[in-house]
Amino acid sequence: MTTSWRPPMGLLMVAGVIAVILAVFAGIYAYNRPTEFVVAVGPPHSEDAKLVQAADKILRRDRASVRLKVLLTPGPAEAAKAFDDEKADLAVVRSDLSVNSTGQAIAILHRNAAVLLAPSGSPIEHVGDLRGKTVGMVRQTVANDQLLETILRQYEVPGHEVARVALGLEEIESAVRNHRVDAVLAVGPVTGNIVPAAVAAVAAGAGAPPIFVPVNEADAIAQRTPAYDSMQIVRGSFGGAPPKPSDSVQTIAAVYRIVAQAKLADAHVTDLTRRLYEMRNDLVAAVPLAARIEAPDTDKGGRITVHPGAAAYLDGDEESFLDRYGDWFYIIAMVMGGVASAFAALAGRWRSRGHEQALRLERLLGIMREARTAETRQVLDYLEQQADEVFSQTLALASREEIDAGRLTAFSLALDQVRQAIAERRRMLAKSDGATPAPVALAPFRAAGE
What are 286-291's contacts with CB under 8 Å, separation 24+? Predict the structure, then answer.
């Protein structure tokens, strides 16, 4: 008969408590581990790229629970493609560039105004006057070409009737002075670097403040083409005396915003959105363009789709820790209650078994005491039968490995003593009757291996 060691019940309960504690610490670690978002932005030396890189540095400095991994691209179009291909969780995209339906806004970074400039003294005062003229495109891109086409289409000016020349900022002044171009289109934030530099260069080339050509039907364009917004360049936006422009000018703008994949967890996006707006002052110190960051419209049916996580923060519906994980606490409490009940039941079962085994051992000791005072062989036969029953019960427990080695040894010793007591009493009774007692061969009970 073989036996196996069974750990004490107390040790099992301690192990269970340790396992629960380790699970809790693992959950806390997983919760506090920073979440890293890959964000696509370009071109590498643009204000947008500098802004995102500055945000990443601030998040790491503050040991925030969310971090940014910057993926630099050649331009906004490539950033949009990386986002569409799911190579990035976030992207800084331009509103008139394709972004798949999973892109949901977190914040508006800035609006790039389309600023049409004509040299002082030019006959160009309206968009329709551009027919047959040459427009210098500052940083000419496919997106800026499309923007100009959209403006011309509103005024029924065929695109092929307006020539276009790509210009760097350093080329604008000479191009205006030498009449290589009749007008200049600069697309960028009014408070950024490109547009103010273009205004100053046109003024220097003509020797006087430029003419700001308005897009008076900007509201109609924005209504027909949701990729663009209508905006106003207010009087004096570019300084000067007299102010530039001398009156507020209407135009259209492409919107640059941060978008997130719809599949991102709401809680993580909420955290990122909150930190983005909270760090705005720090960002402005590093990148002045950050002052233009604004919240998207969260109203249902708005022109852009806002990520639910961002909307929760912007609308003041941010979930607390208990709101977010209350259900999990309830489930954990139920599970731990079940585990505790199981331990209690197991402990009760072990206590019950231990009590039963103690009673059997006590019964053997009782049989031994009764055997020593038995008056007849019939009583001894009965006691021997009782001892055999206890032996068979103990043997059954041992076969199921439900008794530990210590108790099994105690049963073995007690059973030996009972058998010896019964044999001794038989010899004494036989002598008193004058009979010769038959020798009794004792086969003491032993655990396997003894």
Answer: 286/50, 286/51, 286/54, 287/47, 287/50, 287/51, 287/54, 288/191, 289/47, 289/48, 289/51, 289/109, 289/110, 289/189, 289/191, 289/192, 290/51, 290/54, 290/109, 291/191
Task: Report DSSP state, residue 319.
Answer: P
Which of 20 and 367 is assigned the larger pLDDT? Answer: 367
- Rounded Cα distance, 114 and 338, in Å: 66
The position carrying tokens 């009087």 is: 235
CB 61 within 8 A of CB 34: no
Q: Where are the beta strands (DSSP E) in 73-143?
A: 90-94, 103-118, 134-138
> Helix (H, G, I), strand (E, B), or coil: what is residue 227?
coil
In this prediction, residue 293 has a pLDDT band, given cuts at 50, 70 and 90, of very high
Residue ranges, comma separated, of all CATH 3.40.190.10 domains in the chain are 41-319
Distance CA 183, CA 133 (A): 8
Least confident of 107-111, 167-171, 340-344: 340-344
Q: Are strands 103-118 and 183-188 parallel, antiparallel or unpaired?
A: antiparallel
The pLDDT, as a whole number, for residue 401 is: 62
How far is 268 from 262, CA to CA, in rounded Å?
A: 12
Task: Using alpha carbons only, give the angle 248, 253, 257 rounded to the nearest 5 degrees.
Answer: 130
Q: Report DSSP letters for 41-60, one per residue.
A: E-STTSHHHHHHHHHHHHHH
Taking 3-state DSSP, the helix, strand and coil percentages for the chain, each rounded to the nearest 5, stand at: 50, 15, 30
* Higher pLDDT pick, 44 / 320: 44
Cα–Cα distance measured from residue 296 to residue 177, given in angstroms and rounded to the nearest whole number: 42
Q: Cβ-count burial of 43 within 10 angstroms (0-12 exposed, 13-18 middle, 19+ buried)?
A: middle
Higher pLDDT, 125 or 321: 125
Query: Which band of pLDDT confidence, cut at 50, 70 and 90, is reported for residue 1?
Result: very low
- Would you give the distance in Å from CA 131 to the centre of its chain? 53
CATH 3.40.190.10 fits 41-319, yes or no: yes
Examine the pLDDT at 252 and tell me if it is beyond 90: yes
- Tokens at 406, concatenated: 């210590």
pLDDT digits (tens, 9 = 90+) for 105-138: 999 999 999 999 999 999 999 999 999 999 999 9
